[in-house]
Specification:
Elements: H1 2-20, H2 36-43, H3 48-53, E1 58-69, E2 73-80, E3 83-90, H4 91-103, E4 110-119, E5 125-136, H5 152-157, H6 159-165, H7 167-189, E6 193-194, E7 200-201, E8 213-216, E9 221-225, H8 230-238, E10 243-251, E11 263-272, H9 276-295, E12 299-302, E13 305-308, E14 314-317, H10 318-326, H11 330-333, H12 336-345, H13 356-367, E15 376-379, E16 401-406, E17 409-416, H14 421-436, H15 447-456, E18 460-466, H16 467-475
Parallel strand pairs: 3-5, 6-10, 14-15
Antiparallel strand pairs: 1-2, 1-4, 2-3, 4-5, 7-9, 8-9, 10-11, 11-18, 12-13, 15-16, 16-17, 17-18
Length: 493
């Protein structure tokens, strides 16, 4: 710490020295003409002779990440938004004053460079600087090994530093942006309208989750950060917007893990006159399209194992999956007492008063999820755990719903929507009784949503796709924190 303080003082001294020489350490009058990638694209195939025959001036700007000094000359690596380029700085090119300024620069400083491309003796494409300007003085040193910032806590907490020195991290977030753009373009090409719904809601609805609570001073009322946009999007379908989607931020006051962040991104959409079975085909098409565009293949590597997205994907019912992977008879899963005893044998600590569907959900998480590495649709979930889904016409104890699992984690959740307002009210009432019994994730009553359903929600299917988890899959990222620019962390000590 003492050594770091010395370095900080040295850099402050340099800052003051520059100002005393009438050099602005935070200049804003340098004009950039090209990126480093432009220069690589234009001259990457040219040899030394061709570059010398047709010299072209370029103006680039970026951060100094490395330097090698040789007395009257030096090489520096300059990084901008598009990549990196080596710059050759020499006294006879910059002049005495310009070179003296360069000698005062540190790693991390942002500079503007004007120069012409050439090949070094090792044949590396470089820029011979004819002019160099300090644009921003860095008052803190880069990590000692700038190319290997590995402390996870530092990387997440100081993402600006992570992006600055780790090219692979940059690439992840460039891909994230590309993935979101591809999802948006795909939805719009299928005539879905992108909409925005409230992030602060009087009732935390659309999912079973513990919400974040706030208070509006003017209205003198409690509000909740949304846990899902579902009930608002379905109101829009009632209003005649038959295909809607939202790439949205959701907030759930729950645990943090490599799969969960309290603030996360989903793409949620609703299509009138469709069923959950239609959405299985739609989901395959969407994810395969995005994977092909981003990764160039439907066969990916994740955590050292292959994931094959080639269609069609496997489909199993909820209880079939438990019976298969848990090696248990289906009859056990249909009886409350036997299912509870089976859960206890698995080491699960459950309340015997829990509905059968919730017991099965706990069993599923334990014995099925870890095995669902290749893309698998799990269908026919218990009605007990699906308060917003349409009951199956032939088997009312289950709903018309699927969840998509890839690499052992849920990636998407979809229903044929419940559009019977009487049934919906009964489900909400049941949820209220569970909330009174202590379930903080149970759904609240939403009278306005019931009223909307009474005007008539067309037969509709809806789905939510976890954007963060999709990015994890397509970038081979082990933790959700690796694909969220600023993940939630404990306060810095």
């Amino acid at each position: 710490m003492e050594e770091l303080n010395d370095i900080l003082l040295q850099r402050r001294d340099k800052l003051n020295s520059l100002r005393s020489e009438d050099i602005n350490p935070f200049a804003n009058d340098f004009r950039v003409s090209h990126t480093t990638a432009d220069i690589h694209a234009a001259h990457g195939a040219q040899d030394a002779a061709a570059l010398a025959e047709n010299p072209v001036d370029y103006a680039i700007a970026g951060r100094i990440l490395a330097r090698r000094d040789f007395g009257k000359a030096a090489f520096v690596q300059v990084q901008d938004r598009a990549g990196r380029l080596q710059v050759y700085v020499a006294r006879d090119q910059l002049g005495e004053e310009g070179f003296e300024l360069f000698r005062k620069l540190d790693l991390g400083d942002v500079v503007g460079v004007v120069g012409t491309p050439f090949r070094t003796k090792t044949d590396e494409l470089s820029l011979r600087a004819s002019n160099l300007r300090l644009l921003t003085k860095s008052l803190r040193p880069l990590p000692e090994k700038w190319h290997g910032l590995t402390d996870v806590e530092t990387r997440y907490r100081q993402r600006y530093l992570d992006l600055m020195v780790n090219p692979a991290v940059r690439e992840v977030f460039l891909k994230r942006s590309r993935i979101i753009s591809l999802v948006r373009e795909f939805m719009q090409s299928r005539e879905f309208l992108e909409v925005e719904t409230p992030m602060m809601q009087p009732i935390a609805g659309g999912a079973t989750a513990r919400p974040f609570k706030t208070f509006h001073n003017t209205l003198k009322m409690d509000l909740f950060l949304r846990i899902a946009p579902e009930l608002y999007l379905k109101r829009l379908v009632v209003g005649g917007l038959e295909r809607v989607f939202e790439i949205n931020r959701n907030f759930r006051n729950e645990g943090i893990s490599i799969q969960h962040n309290p603030e996360f991104t989903m793409m949620e959409f609703y299509q009138a006159y469709a069923t959950y079975e239609d959405l299985m085909d739609f989901t395959e098409e969407l994810i395969c399209h995005v994977a092909t565009e981003v990764c160039g293949s439907l066969k990916l590597s994740y955590g050292g194992r292959e994931v094959d997205l080639t269609r069609p994907w496997k489909r199993l019912s909820f209880t079939e999956a438990i019976a298969h992977y848990g090696q248990v008879d289906l009859a056990v899963l249909e009886d409350h007492g036997q299912a509870f005893d089976y859960a206890r044998k698995l080491g699960l600590e459950l309340d015997r008063r829990m509905p059968l569907g919730k017991i099965l959900a706990e069993i599923f998480d334990e014995v099925v999820e870890p095995h669902l590495w290749q893309p698998t649709f799990i269908t026919q979930y218990p009605t007990d755990i699906s308060p917003l889904s349409r009951k199956n016409d032939a088997r009312p104890e289950v709903v018309d719903r699927f969840e998509l699992f890839i690499v052992g984690r849920e990636l998407a959740n979809a229903f044929s929507e419940l559009n019977d307002p009487i049934d919906q009210r009964e489900r909400f009432v049941q949820q209220l009784s569970e909330k009174e019994a202590g379930d903080e994730e149970a759904h609240a009553m939403d009278e306005d949503y019931i009223r909307a359903l009474e005007y008539g929600l067309p037969p509709t299917a809806g789905e939510g796709i976890g954007i963060d988890r999709l990015v994890m899959l397509l970038t081979d990222s082990a933790s959700i924190r690796d694909v969220i620019l600023f993940p939630q962390l404990r306060p810095e000590r």
